[in-house]
Amino acid sequence: MVVLPSALRFLQQRLPSAEIELREMDPSHQIDALQAGQLDLGFTISEVLDDEFSVRRVSREPLIAALPELPRFAGLEKADLRELAPEITILPNRHARRGYYETVTAAYRDAGVKPAQIQCVRMIQTGLVLVGAGMGVALVPACFTHIRMDG
Questions:
Q1: Which of 3.40.190.10, 2.40.50.140, 2.60.120.280, 3.90.1150.10 is the CATH number of 63-146?
Q2: 22 CB-near residues (< 8 Å, 6+ apart)
Q3: Global pTM?
């Protein structure tokens, strides 16, 4: 959320005559499009293991818990994944390449637990809508604190 606006401003300032076309793509399709020469630049939270790419980390953010406004979460200052594991965990679909799905499931694994049930969505933002509806919990990048959902 913070990286893309800054990157776009940087590109517009440094390359004012460049044509910028934004495409929202899952990690696998983005890597494939870069390999095919259909994209010149891509941003992903996925690990890029292909040697043919020059990769630069532009941001690193901790995951935070997005919790519905339900009595059992009221007043909770810090979420323990062991306490969240029984809840439905909402996260974006798994893709052919390592990415956000694996990052979230690894966080649960590192806590010694496994989510009881996983509900996959196409986009993290859709997951936040479901959290707001009380349909589960989600782990999201910290920059998502700027997004507010009812519920």
A1: 3.40.190.10
A2: none
A3: 0.78
